[in-house]
Each structure stands twice: as structure tokens, then as C-alpha cells.
């Protein structure tokens, strides 16, 4: 495997972890509720599917936009990633304690959609650049699923100490990738 491809995959792995941090932090709080392991497995799988589907839609739209705006695609993608990361960091300081809905039925769909919206935007920015779509989608889905499971299981065992810090880390990683695209 050439070094350039290895570097792209490593970048995608870090990006997948950054995207999954939102699901991880929310899952910590959700895991503090009395949720059975079977439900935790289902929730993680659904969130993983949403983290495949949403960036796929974003990548498709990004490819279309990329054909239309040409040379501004890289700039747009970098700015978008940086903006998403900054929003994650700033929102981590704005947490208000609230009761989380149970992850069942339509509540699970809304939960999965809410933690995967940022992956749509990242998919959009990746669609503006040349990225290995299948690898990116598999990494995004797998990372978010595993991080959701981890967050819910840890949430059953620990208090919400990690929630804010994981969002700050995820936002910082996305900001770093945005800056790398802009200036690297």
C-alpha cells in the first residue's frame, strides 16, 4: 500500500473517531438510564447505519457540488470541516441537563439522526474532495457503532465526566482536518 493511501486511511480513521465522539458523549448519558445490553446492541447498530447513510448522502451531494464549483471545492470542504469542529467544541460548553428519551422506536430514529447530522456535513465536504467512499463509510459506521456501545456501557458504570471532554476532542480533530485541508 503506497504511503499516500495509508495516510488517507489513517486520516479517515481519525475523522471517523471524531464523528463518533458525539454519539459516544450522548450515549454516556443514555447509558446511565436502565437499558439492557440487547437494547444497547440495537442502538449502536442503528447509529452505525445512520453514520453510513448520512455521509453517503453528503458525499453524493458533495460530488454534485464539486462538479459545479470546481476550484472552490477544496476550500469549501476545509471550511466546512473546521466549522463543524468549532461548533462541536462550542456546543460542548452549552450542555443543559435534560431527561433523555428512551431509544425505542421513533425515539431511536430521532436519536440516531441527531447524532449523525454532523456526519452528513462531513460527507458533504468529503464529496467535494477525492475520497475513497466505501472505506470512509465503513469506517464512519463502525467507529460510531463501537463508540456508541462503549459510551452506553461506560455510562452504565460511570457518571457523565467524559461527555464534554469527548466532544471537545472530536471537535478539535475535525478542526485540525479542516485546517489541514485549507493549509496542508
TrEMBL record:
The keyword Nuclease does not apply. GO terms for cellular component: plasma membrane. It comes from the Bacteria. Signal peptide: none annotated. The chain crosses the membrane at residues 6-28, 40-65, 71-93, 105-128, 134-155, 162-183. Pfam families: Mntp. Coiled coil: none annotated. It is found in: Cell membrane. GO terms for molecular function: manganese ion transmembrane transporter activity. Keywords: Cell membrane, Ion transport, Manganese, Membrane, Transmembrane, Transmembrane helix, Transport. Its main location: membrane. It is a multi-pass membrane protein. Belongs to the MntP (TC 9.B.29) family. Probably functions as a manganese efflux pump. This is Putative manganese efflux pump MntP. It comes from Lentibacillus persicus. The gene is mntP.
Amino acid at each position: 500500500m503506497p504511503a499516500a493511501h495509508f495516510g488517507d486511511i489513517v486520516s479517515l480513521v481519525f475523522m471517523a473517531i471524531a464523528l463518533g465522539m458525539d454519539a459516544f458523549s450522548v450515549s454516556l448519558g443514555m447509558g446511565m438510564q436502565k437499558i439492557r445490553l440487547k437494547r444497547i446492541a440495537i442502538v449502536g447498530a442503528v447509529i452505525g447505519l445512520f453514520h453510513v447513510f448520512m455521509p453517503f448522502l453528503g458525499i453524493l451531494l458533495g460530488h454534485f457540488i464539486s462538479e459545479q464549483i470546481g476550484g472552490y471545492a477544496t476550500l469549501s470542504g476545509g471550511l466546512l470541516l473546521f466549522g463543524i469542529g468549532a461548533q462541536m467544541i462550542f456546543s460542548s460548553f452549552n450542555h443543559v441537563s435534560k431527561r433523555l428519551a428512551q431509544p425505542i422506536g421513533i425515539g431511536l430514529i430521532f436519536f440516531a439522526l441527531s447524532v449523525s447530522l454532523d456526519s452528513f456535513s462531513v460527507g458533504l465536504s468529503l464529496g467535494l474532495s477525492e475520497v475513497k467512499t466505501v472505506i470512509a463509510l465503513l469506517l464512519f459506521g463502525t467507529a460510531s457503532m463501537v463508540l456508541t456501545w462503549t459510551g452506553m456501557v461506560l455510562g452504565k458504570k460511570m457518571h457523565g465526566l467524559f461527555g464534554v471532554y469527548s466532544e471537545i476532542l472530536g471537535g478539535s480533530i475535525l478542526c485540525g482536518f479542516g485546517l489541514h485541508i485549507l493549509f496542508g
